[in-house]
Amino acid sequence: MADVKSGASPLFLREEELRQCIELLFFAYRDFTAGPDKILKEYNFGRAHHRVIHFVWRNQGISVSELLDILRITKQSLSRVLNALVERGFIEQRPGVTDRRQRLLYLTEKGQALEHKLSEEQRNLVAKAFREAGGEAVAGYRQVLSGLINEEDRETVLKRILGN
Amino acid sequence: MADVKSGASPLFLREEELRQCIELLFFAYRDFTAGPDKILKEYNFGRAHHRVIHFVWRNQGISVSELLDILRITKQSLSRVLNALVERGFIEQRPGVTDRRQRLLYLTEKGQALEHKLSEEQRNLVAKAFREAGGEAVAGYRQVLSGLINEEDRETVLKRILGN
DNA sequence: ATTTTACGTCAGCCATGTTGACTTAAATTT
DNA sequence: AAATTTAAGTCAACATGGCTGACGTAAAAT
């Protein structure tokens, strides 16, 4: 009874540790995403545009449905954002060669330039955190975050991240 | 010249590694936050409510301005969410003892129950990832994520997470 | 007595998510 | 060849949760 509340109880410590790590994820994500927002504003874009730019850059020639699967949003939500990017010349659509129903997505040079500009600060931030933490810590980071990915499609996602 | 594009270039590898870790953070966060959303819907609450519930639970008696500082949103945004939680009896406001302008926030029993319900799946998920990754990996995870927190208030934030 | 601070409200706007219904063209199946 | 399924798009309406700006009140600090 008493040791349920005891600070020395391993069960309590475990839960407290979990909570801390959950908060850590919140704060890290909060500050990590804060960077690009300023730049995006100058272009009258938002985070949604950034996500599209990022994943099209990483997966040149991705189909719309694949992109939808990554972002986990509806095609109606995507279309608003995607249309803006296409109209303003950041993304180009080309019909698929084997399946001409597809409209495969590519970043234009302008789009690539923006991608680079947007990710620069983030890359510097992560690079600094990595340098300070060391290689082993980075390995741990990767392991734990991989474990947080939904088990059902973890393999697929990891494959995509690491480059098929 | 040539080795700028060479796959063996350490500079290229470094950048590629960074990109991978950035994506990892995106996917992990995406799947990590997906859990509570179902439960929240049953209550007609959203993620914003969850965040408030979480941080009030972790900082019983927190003032409104402190909460605003954590969430990094405007008081007008907070008020909508907070008022709903107070009206429906999940959160209680009490005037501060030393400073009676403050309306310190507390979770009611009902609020604590909801917090527990909401975090349960998340805690299980993180616990599983930790078990699979091992203690060293967890230490790395913590180190790297700490490094991603905005340098200016990192100390303050870490203090809050770890419990002053 | 004045100013500042903590908190609150009203009103309106914007970004980005949702559902549902319907279209078109190409690919696939029967 | 005809029917069905699939990839993608569109229109419309709505919800959530951010934002700005203006203004109010009570308590604390100067």
User: Which two chains have the most extensive interface, and how many residues on each?
Assistant: A-B, 52 and 52 residues
SSE series of chain A: HHHHHEEHHH
Strand tally of chain A: 2
CATH topology of chain A: Arc Repressor Mutant, subunit A
Q: What is the CATH architecture term of chain A? A: Orthogonal Bundle
The N- and C-terminal alpha carbons of chain A lie at a distance of 52 Å
Strand content of chain A: 5-15%
Going by CATH, the homologous superfamily of chain A would be Winged helix-like DNA-binding domain superfamily/Winged helix DNA-binding domain
Rounded to the nearest angstrom, the radius of gyration of chain A is: 20 Å
Keywords (chains A, B): DNA-binding, Transcription, Transcription regulation
Protein name (chains A, B): MarR family transcriptional regulator
